[in-house]
C-alpha cells in the first residue's frame, strides 16, 4: 500500500488517534524529564541545560505534526540530536512514525541520519562522553534497527487489517450483487412461466368462447361442458397469476416457493385438458418412462409441449396434433409437436411473439436444442432434444 493511501486513511484523527498522540506526547515528556534529571547530576552549564530542555520541549510539541508531515518532522529533529539529549524520545517516536506511515526506502535513510548525528553528540557535549563510546554506538544502532522492525511490523499489520476489511466489504458487495442477480434471474424465469401458463389458459378460454359464438344452437350439454372448461381455465389462470405476482414482489418471502412446478409426468393431463377444450390431440409416449425424467429436463419438455399446443390453437385451429415423446437414459429426450400447416393464420389470439424464442432459451439452458418450421410433407413441427443424463 502506498504512502498516499496510508496518509489519507489517517488524515482525520479518530478517538484512538487522539489517545495515541497524547500517549506519545506524554511519553516523550517523561523521557525528556528523566534525561533532564540525569543532566542535572552532570557538570552541565546552566545555559546549555536550559537550551537542551527548550529544544526537548519543542521536539515534544513537534510530535503533534508527525501525522501530517512524518518525514519532515523526523528530518527536522535529526540535527537536534547533535546537541540536545532531551529530544531522544521525540526522535524515536518520529522514526517509528516514518516507518509506519512511509516507505522503507525513506525510513532507512532517516534512521541512518539520526544514528549518524548521534556520533557527533559526545563531541559537542563532552560531559556525556563515556569510556565505552563505540559500545554505546553499537547499542544505539541495534536500538534503531529494533525501532525500524517494530514500525514495519505495525505497518504490515495495519495493511493486513485494511486489506481484510476491504476484502470483506467486497465480498459483502459481491454477495448483494449475486442475490440481486439471482432475484432478477428468478423473476425472468417466472415471467417466462407466466407467458407459457397464461397463454395456454387464455387460449383455452378463447377457443371455447369462439365455439359458443359460432354455434348458437348447440345443445345445452355441450354448453355446460364448455362452461366448465372456461370456468376451470379461468380459475387456474387466476391462481397462476396470483402465484407469479406474489413471487415478483419487491421483497420476496424467504424460503422456497410453495408452487409446484410441472414435469414431464404432467403432459398426459395437459393433453387431456386440451382434448376437453375440443382439440384433436394424440399423445405418443412410445413406452418412455415419463416419471423417470429429471425434473429440470421434464419441466422444460412440459413447457415445450404446452407452447406447441398453444400455438396450434392460435394459428391452426381445428388441426389434428400429434405429441411424441421418446428417449432413454444416456440417449436423451426428444419432444415433438406436429400438426398440418395451417391454411391461414387466424390471428384471433394475440401473443407476444417470443414464445419460441423463450423455448429455445429454455432448451439451451439445460444443454439441449430446439428447432421448428415446415417439414417436407407440409406439416409444422416443433422438435426439441434435451439431455437425459444417467
TrEMBL record:
Keywords: ATP-binding, Kinase, Membrane, Nucleotide-binding, Phosphoprotein, Transferase, Transmembrane, Transmembrane helix, Two-component regulatory system. One of its GO terms (molecular function) is kinase activity. It comes from Micromonospora sonneratiae. The chain crosses the membrane at residues 18-40, 46-65, 72-98, 104-121, 133-153. InterPro entries: HATPase_C_sf, Sensor_HK_TwoCompSys, Sig_transdc_His_kin_sub3_dim/P. Pfam families: HisKA_3. Its EC number is 2.7.13.3. Residues 186-251 form the Signal transduction histidine kinase subgroup 3 dimerisation and phosphoacceptor domain. It catalyses: ATP + protein L-histidine = ADP + protein N-phospho-L-histidine. It comes from the Bacteria. This is histidine kinase.
Amino acid at each position: 500500500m502506498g504512502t498516499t493511501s496510508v496518509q489519507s486513511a489517517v488524515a482525520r484523527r479518530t478517538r484512538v488517534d487522539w489517545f495515541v498522540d497524547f500517549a506519545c506526547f506524554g511519553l516523550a515528556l517523561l523521557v525528556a524529564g528523566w534525561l533532564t534529571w540525569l543532566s542535572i547530576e552532570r557538570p552541565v552549564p546552566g545555559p546549555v541545560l536550559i537550551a537542551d530542555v527548550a529544544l526537548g520541549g519543542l521536539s515534544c510539541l513537534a510530535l503533534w505534526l508527525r501525522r501530517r508531515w512524518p518525514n519532515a518532522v523526523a528530518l527536522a529533529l535529526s540535527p537536534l540530536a547533535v546537541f540536545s539529549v532531551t529530544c531522544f524520545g521525540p526522535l524515536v517516536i518520529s522514526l517509528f512514525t516514518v516507518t509506519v506511515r512511509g516507505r522503507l526506502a525513506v525510513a532507512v535513510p532517516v534512521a541512518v541520519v539520526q544514528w549518524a548525528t548521534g556520533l557527533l553528540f559526545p563531541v559537542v557535549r563532552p560531559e556525556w562522553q563515556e569510556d565505552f563510546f563505540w559500545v554505546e554506538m553499537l547499542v544505539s544502532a541495534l536500538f534503531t534497527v529494533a525501532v525500524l522492525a517494530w514500525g514495519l511490523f505495525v505497518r504490515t499489520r495495519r495493511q493486513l487489517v485494511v486489506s481484510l476489511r476491504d476484502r470483506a466489504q467486497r465480498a459483502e458487495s459481491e454477495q448483494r450483487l449475486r442475490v440481486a442477480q439471482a432475484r432478477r434471474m428468478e423473476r425472468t424465469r417466472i415471467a417466462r412461466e407466466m407467458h407459457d401458463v397464461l397463454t395456454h389458459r387464455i387460449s383455452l378460454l378463447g377457443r371455447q368462447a369462439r365455439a359458443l359464438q359460432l354455434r348458437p344452437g348447440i345443445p345445452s350439454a355441450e354448453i355446460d361442458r364448455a362452461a366448465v372448461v372456461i370456468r376451470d381455465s379461468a380459475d387456474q389462470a387466476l391462481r397462476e397469476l396470483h402465484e407469479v405476482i406474489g413471487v415478483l414482489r419487491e421483497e420476496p418471502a424467504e424460503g422456497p416457493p410453495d408452487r409446484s412446478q410441472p414435469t414431464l409426468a404432467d403432459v398426459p393431463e395437459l393433453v387431456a385438458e386440451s382434448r376437453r377444450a375440443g382439440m384433436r390431440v394424440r399423445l405418443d409416449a412410445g413406452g418412455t418412462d415419463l416419471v423417470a425424467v429429471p425434473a429440470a429436463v421434464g419441466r422444460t419438455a412440459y413447457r415445450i409441449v404446452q407452447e406447441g399446443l398453444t400455438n396450434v390453437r392460435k394459428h391452426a385451429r381445428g388441426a389434428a396434433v400429434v405429441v411424441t415423446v421418446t428417449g432413454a437414459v444416456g440417449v436423451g429426450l426428444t419432444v415433438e409437436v406436429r400438426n398440418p400447416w395451417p391454411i391461414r393464420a387466424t390471428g384471433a389470439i394475440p401473443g407476444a411473439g417470443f414464445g419460441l424464442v423463450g423455448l429455445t432459451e429454455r432448451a439451451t439452458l439445460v444443454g439441449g436444442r430446439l428447432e421448428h418450421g415446415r417439414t417436407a410433407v407440409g406439416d409444422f413441427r416443433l422438435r426439441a432434444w434435451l439431455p437425459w443424463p444417467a
